Design the sequence.
């Protein structure tokens, strides 16, 4: 079996171990007592992904990142002379130089450190806020996000993962600090600036007027797709994505596949079905996750009609919240018996998607 299958076997093994050892305890989260995984066990569950990520070869942007890292100066003293010569994402370059000054020219350790930071961000948030941590990690894997981002677009995902840990700032409405964090993270990947207006849109109850206006904007973007595409092509000039224009990628980009969009839209659709229950519970975390899910689905729909490479990369800032939302929906919208069936159906559906994506689309298994 390949590593792409072994990682799913590992998650299944963790499920069996968890049911046997029960490394779960009660702790206070958002003002309520909840059952949560022990932090060490939560780390162990995610560790194989980090290790595998550090050992990857020739997947996606890996070689480009490796070449870029090896060409960086290795002395900390060069930080202040080299970084100013970089036009975009100076924060990522600075971080890479700092890492290289510590570990030397080892690209394996470099990938390990970046993946460890990303993984730690996910572990912290999912362990604290998800009602089913292991299911959240399974969804992250079976959705192929771990490959699309940790093995491929690691610079943008580093920004997305760091902003994901700012969920507490958003929940507590500490806007100034949240914006400062976003501005700092945007030095790693400029697309992180998208989060600043979204911080305010996602506040409030699920499916509120602001999210409905966002949906209206999505509909208008689709109706006037030609004009919207022209605006996009102008917007990406002198950004991280301007190579899409110079290399002719933009013209050949046929958008995100409908199948992938449908998969990412499932939590949003379930939230619409269970809207009455979500509003009744008025759980601030779930309200936030629902609104984030709506933003994610909206952007994915737009990317289906415009650019999968540009617009299709933006929802990662919001789709990570889906893996908190979906387990909660299963456990709270449905009865206990129905929830067990829904868990099985969800696992089966995501495994099917994983197989189709890995075998049919990417030819990896």
Sequence:
């Amino acid at each position: 079996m390949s590593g792409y299958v072994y990682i799913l076997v590992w998650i299944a093994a963790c499920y069996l171990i968890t049911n046997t050892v029960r490394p779960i305890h009660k702790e206070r989260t958002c003002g309520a007592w909840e059952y949560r995984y022990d932090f060490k066990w939560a780390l162990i569950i995610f560790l194989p992904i980090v290790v595998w990520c550090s050992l990857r070869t020739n997947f996606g942007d890996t070689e480009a990142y490796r070449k870029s890292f090896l060409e960086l100066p290795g002395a900390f003293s060069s930080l202040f002379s080299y970084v100013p010569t970089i036009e975009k994402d100076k924060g990522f370059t600075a971080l890479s130089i700092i890492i290289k000054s510590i570990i030397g020219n080892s690209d394996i350790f470099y990938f390990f450190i970046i993946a460890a930071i990303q993984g730690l961000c996910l572990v912290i948030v999912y362990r604290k806020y998800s009602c089913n941590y292991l299911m959240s990690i399974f969804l992250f894997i079976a959705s192929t996000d771990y490959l699309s981002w940790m093995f491929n677009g690691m610079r943008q995902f580093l920004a997305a993962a760091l902003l994901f840990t700012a969920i507490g700032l958003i929940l507590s409405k500490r806007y100034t600090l949240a914006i400062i964090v976003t501005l700092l993270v945007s030095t790693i990947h400029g697309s992180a600036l998208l989060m600043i207006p979204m911080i305010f849109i996602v506040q409030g109850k699920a499916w509120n007027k602001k999210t409905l206006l966002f949906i209206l904007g999505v509909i208008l973007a689709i109706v006037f797709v030609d004009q919207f595409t022209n605006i996009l092509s102008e917007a990406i000039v002198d950004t991280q994505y301007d190579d899409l224009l110079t290399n002719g990628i933009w013209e050949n980009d046929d958008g995100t596949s409908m199948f992938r969009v449908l998969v990412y839209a499932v939590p949003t659709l379930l939230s619409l079905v269970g809207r009455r229950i979500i509003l009744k519970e008025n759980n601030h975390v779930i309200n936030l996750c629902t609104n984030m899910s709506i933003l994610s689905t909206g952007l994915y729909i737009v990317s289906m009609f415009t650019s999968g490479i540009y617009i299709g990369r933006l929802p990662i800032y919001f789709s990570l919240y889906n893996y908190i939302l979906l387990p909660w929906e299963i456990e709270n919208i449905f009865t206990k018996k129905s929830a067990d069936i829904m868990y099985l159906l969800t696992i089966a559906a995501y495994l099917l998607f994983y197989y189709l994506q890995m075998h049919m689309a990417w030819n990896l298994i």
Notes: The mean pLDDT is 88. The CA atoms of residues 66 and 259 lie 32 Å apart. The two ends are 9 Å apart (CA to CA). The first helix runs from residue 3 to 21.
